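Bug report (template v2)

What were you trying to do?
Predict the complex of my protein with magnesium ion.

What happened?
Run completed; filing so the output is reviewed.

Input:
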Amino acid sequence: MIKFDNVRYNHPDGTNALDNISLDIPEESITAIVGNNGAGKTTLVKHINGLLKPSTGTVSIKNEDTRNSSVAELSRNVGMVFQNANHQLFADTVKNEILFGLNNFGFNEEFIRERYEFVIELFKLRKYEDISPLKLSGGEKKRVCLASVLAWNPEILILDEPTVGQDELQKTVLLKFINQLHSNKKTVIVISHDIEFLWRLQPNIVTMSDGKIIEIGNSESIFKNQELMEQVGIIPPQIIKIFEGLKIKDEIPLSFEESCKVIKNLRN
Ligand SMILES: Nc1ncnc2c1ncn2[C@@H]1O[C@H](COP(=O)(O)OP(=O)(O)OP(=O)(O)O)[C@@H](O)[C@H]1O
Ligand SMILES: [Mg+2]
């Protein structure tokens, strides 16, 4: 559905940020992109909504070359929540921030009302409706960004570091919501350094370093590959380290409770 074909991207100052990227992201999948700072993750996803166009190679969405569409056209189907909330927020109130996309894409009034109510409740933003989003805390700003993009229900959703500054409760809301989007046949792409969050999400993982894709695989195979983890500058989830430290060969359960049971059984 999303296809990168031999993509290179050089920033205007000549920095090479993507080096011969070929990647297929299937429809209705959850994909995480991980890698060290400066690996090229944000640069990569900016190609999906057309904010950046490849220097060489092609990026296509549903077989349509992004060079042939404007960012406005692509945004209807590709919603992106930016890494830095301050780069996204611009309206005078939280309400207008959320309504902007909805009004801009020309949805009917009933749909706009329904979606507005849905996201304002989901992200617990009711009491901030009439105040400037710039006055909110970092975590709250991020929630407004999430709400304003999720409001128009795009088919592809890109979340760049969505858990930064979020407390545990909000992370759980986000996790449930991503899973819900997945069941509703959306394609979700998450960039994250939050490995514990990714372990709970169990996405397909694309690892990047120095503008290149290093390896692609499921969460367990990627996180168990120590050499790869070092190469891309991440630490595996705690539970993998515990199972390895205790030399437990069993499959690692996803829930903390189930993992405890495995460890307890071993002691008995
Ligand atoms: N506007 C720009 N002009 C020049 N170079 C840039 C620009 N934006 C990013 N870069 C460079 O491109 C490379 C990739 O940056 P990118 O933001 O994609 O990394 P990232 O993997 O998202 O990192 P992080 O984990 O820190 O968010 C880095 O070397 C960065 O310094
Ligand atoms: Mg980034």
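What did the reviewer find?
Residues 11, 13, 15, 17, 35, 37-43, 83 surround adenosine-5'-triphosphate (ligand 1) (CB under 6 Å). Residues 174 and 225 are 27 Å apart (CA to CA).
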